[in-house]
Design brief:
By secondary structure, the chain is of the alpha+beta class. It folds into three domains: about 60-255, Thrombin, subunit H (Beta Barrel), CATH 2.40.10; about 265-355, PDZ domain (Pdz3 Domain, Roll); about 380-465, Pdz3 Domain (Roll). Helix content is about 20%, strand content about 30%. Helix 1 (about 5-30) runs antiparallel to helix 2.
Length: about 475
């Protein structure tokens, strides 16, 4: 724990901050501009206390914040449309978290480099070794060795972070070393920002600029509560930091073995929308819908089926695909896990032994063709072994969508050429004849539930006869 004058002042700061703001605004409103230094103005002492908190904080944390540079440009990531980067090969930041010289930074800062240069506030330079990286959280660890003690700062508990609390970002924006900016936490648990696979970001309005990536986000106690990773480049005052608790989960594995082992369930999943909730006879949108179960994987062995709705993983409730992915990924492969699911309106508990997560398969190309029209506004053909091989599918049952008529029921529902239909209204579709029989009995005004395979991943869609 960091020991400094910062801590005793924080309680007093919280008690007086409201009085300070009110007093200063009231005096200025009543008296107008005041000449000279109004040291006796009401609330001035509290303002000075507030100022001293940030001054002391800066003195204690800045020495542990480093500049990291590589010999080549960082590897571009799929989130470049959000991240702003400098023009130089790299000017990222990092923070020393222990006396052994381990430094936490972003994976996109080190890129594919194995060796980097680390520069401290006191101008000392060290060769750094990238000991581990995790693209799924955009975290990496760099190691340096020093003959004299290194400055460090502690990791805090991000579960205690509240919206509205003060935060301080430190880094090297635009190559300007050891820059400190102040703001507040503006939101928590941000997902679907498309920056990394596992997202649980702290959002802040503390100024974060190119070069801040990999640098720490502090609370006013001088504890790291996040690692700054990105900004939205078309907005002002919106930055994102990886929470420190995620850092504490990932970094020990990166130090020990250079990578992270995560649990793998082996299912395709999607959110439970209002339309899907209605089709599955749910009172509200809850849980995460399983749209595909991969052959030979833990989910299949445990008896999970397409159409199951996962409500809980052990004791953690899940209601978004990202939340489920994080819950499963955080579990140890090889250990039994309990899933609470909803199947046909009934709750069940299943025990599943997770394996280690595998890399995603490559996307397949759609195969165009022609066949008879259907009432849904699409053409289909049997899924032959040859087509399945071209699509890199393991099975040959189902029908391939070869054409989607514009503004048809299928088009409005989002079906695409190359989709493989596996079920209609929970009835298995193994061939074109099954499809035609199912199509004849449909009532589009009541909605049509379709399970399909798209680019090797399962998906449920609801087709409604309601043009936009």
């Amino acid at each position: 724990m960091l020991v400094s004058p910062v801590q005793p002042r924080t309680a007093r700061l919280r008690r007086t901050l409201g009085l300070v703001v009110f007093s200063v605004v009231w005096v200025l409103a009543v008296s107008g501009p005041m000449p000279g230094y109004a040291k006796d103005m009401p609330g001035m002492k509290a303002l000075i206390d507030l100022q001293d908190v940030f001054v002391d904080l800066a003195e204690h944390v800045k020495p542990a914040v480093v500049n990291i540079s590589t010999s080549g440009a960082p590897t571009p990531s799929r989130s470049d449309r959000f991240r702003q980067r400098p023009d130089s090969p790299s000017s990222g930041s990092g923070v020393i978290i222990d006396k052994d010289g381990y430094i936490v930074t972003n994976n996109h800062v080190v890129g594919d480099a194995t060796d980097v240069e680390v520069r401290l506030l006191d101008k000392r330079k060290f060769p750094g070794k990238v000991v581990g990286r995790d693209p799924d959280t955009d975290l990496a660890v760099v190691k340096i060795t020093s003959k004299i003690p290194l400055p460090t700062v502690p990791l805090g508990d991000s579960s205690q972070v509240k919206v509205g609390q003060w935060v301080v970002a430190v880094g090297n924006p635009f190559g300007l070393e050891s820059t400190l900016t102040v703001g507040v936490v503006s939101a928590l648990k941000r997902e679907n920002v498309n920056l990394s696979r596992y997202e649980d970001f702290i959002q802040t309005d503390a100024s974060i600029n190119p070069g801040n990536s990999g640098g720490p986000l502090f609370n006013i106690r001088g504890e790291i509560i996040g690692i700054n990773t990105a900004i939205i480049n078309f907005a002002q005052g919106i930055g994102f930091a990886i929470p420190s608790n995620m850092v504490q989960d990932v970094v020990p594995q990166l130090i020990a073995k250079g990578k992270v082992s995560r649990g793998w369930l082996g299912v395709g999943i999607q959110p439970v929308t209002e339309d899907l909730a209605s089709q599955f006879k749910l009172e509200r949108e809850e849980g995460v819908l399983v749209n595909e179960v991969f052959e030979g994987e833990p989910a299949q062995k445990a008896g999970i089926q397409p159409g199951d709705i996962i409500l809980m993983v052990d004791h953690t409730a899940v209601d978004t695909p990202s939340g489920l992915a994080k819950a499963v990924a955080g579990l140890t492969p090889g250990k039994p896990t309990t899933l609470k699911i909803l199947r046909n309106g009934e709750q069940r508990q299943l025990s599943v032994v997770l394996t280690e997560r595998k890399d995603e398969s490559e996307a397949a190309e759609a195969v165009p063709a022609k066949s008879p029209e259907s009432v849904l506004g699409l053409n289909i053909q049997d899924l032959t072994k040859e087509i399945a091989d071209r699509l890199k599918l393991k099975e040959t049952k189902g029908v391939l969508v070869t054409k989607v008529e514009p503004d048809s029921l299928a088009d409005r529902g989002g079906l695409k050429e190359g989709d493989v239909i596996k079920e209609i209204n929970r009835h298995a579709i193994e061939n074109a004849e099954d499809f035609r029989k199912a199509s004849e009995a449909l009532k589009p005004e009541e909605g049509v539930l379709v399970r399909l395979i798209r680019e090797q991943r399962g998906l449920f869609v609801v087709l409604n006869d309601k043009p936009e």
